[in-house]
Amino acid sequence: MASRPRGRRRFDDDIDESPRSSTPLTIPTSDVTADEEPDEPCWSTYPDAAHGPEPIPHWVIRSAAAIDTDLGVLKSGKEADVSLLRRDHDDSSSLMAVKRYRDSHHRLFHRDASYLEGRRMRRSRENRAMDTRTAFGRELIAGQWAVAEFRVLCHLWSIGAAVPYPVQLNGTELMMEFIGDADGTAAPRLAQVRPSPRAARSLFEQLRNVLLALAEAGYAHGDLSPYNILVHEDRLVLIDLPQAVDLVGNPQGFHYLERDCHNVCAWFASHGIDADGGELAQDLRAVVR
Fold first, then answer.
1. What is the 3 state secondary structure string of the chain?
2. Residue 78: pLDDT band by 50, 70, 90 thresholds?
3. Any idea which residues carry the catalytic annotation?
4. 34 falls in which pLDDT band (50, 70, 90)?
5. Beta-bridge partners for 88
6. Which domains does the chain have, with CATH numbers?
7. How many whole angstroms separate alpha carbon 162 and alpha carbon 41?
8. Which are the contacts of 13, defined by CB distance < 8 A and separation ≥ 6?
9. What is the pTM of this model?
10. Could you report the per-residue pLDDT of 224-277, keeping only the tens digit for each?
């Protein structure tokens, strides 16, 4: 086996600082098809990747001798695919969700312009390439999506927000904690849950708390709906954060915040909860630094 560098990279190495500059990912409930064969196992990429924040959870396997086995695609989206991966070493094993952002020939950048406002790179050549959507610019944007989601997850997990633990980032491949059961069954999305009135009140309070944490950190989710919130064992987890919007650096930041609030409050109101999107948005605005 060829030797590989063992030096650990910080999660913010080689990442441009924007103006402003846990545990659970968005995965549907369908399992990997039974007759699908897992990919051939390969050595863990952890030693060569950027790592998530400390304290590193006990279930994260860090050994260079670990084996990764891709168990198949869980979700195919317009901008990324999500797969289930098992990492094994000796008697230890852990499941992770792997989000692979599509390359420039297969991705659909239908939302880039407004979401990327406030995220500027240091070199004017790179900014021009992204603005004109050259092949080089599209590759830069793909990398920005992955870096943005990793950075936001690292920050939010560090302050105790209900998001998945980001295990590692390697290029445009993001590995994070799998939210679901030990047999690989993913947690349902909020849209798929039929909670009791008591459970719905608890979930709404949990949602309010995680959105307050985002706002205090200077972010809006940017694309929040009942379809990118997971519920696992009565715990609500926020996922799918590549488009997280800088509330200070993005001129449309508060527009996205208000839209997020109205989207989720409409769902809770339909389940008997006194949830007002305007009031929630006002509460979030009050804590933005």
1. CCCCCCCCECCCCCCCCCCCCCCCCCCCCCCCCCCCCCCCCEECCHHHCEECCCCCCCCCCCCCCCEEEEEEEEEECCCEEEEEEEEEECCEEEEEEEEEECCCCCCCCCCHHHHCCCCCCCCHHHHHHHHHCCHHHHHHHHHHHHHHHHHHHHHHHHCCCCCCCEEEEECCEEEEECCECCCCCECCEHHHCCCCHHHHHHHHHHHHHHHHHHHHCCEECCCCCHHHEEEECCEEEECCCCCCEECCCCCCHHHHHHHHHHHHHHHHHCCCCCCCHHHHHHHHHHHCC
2. confident
3. 223, 240
4. very low
5. 67, 93
6. 42-177 (3.30.200.20), 190-287 (1.10.510.10)
7. 31
8. 50
9. 0.79
10. 999 999 999 999 999 999 999 999 999 999 999 999 999 999 999 999 999 999
What is the identity of the amino acid at 254?
F
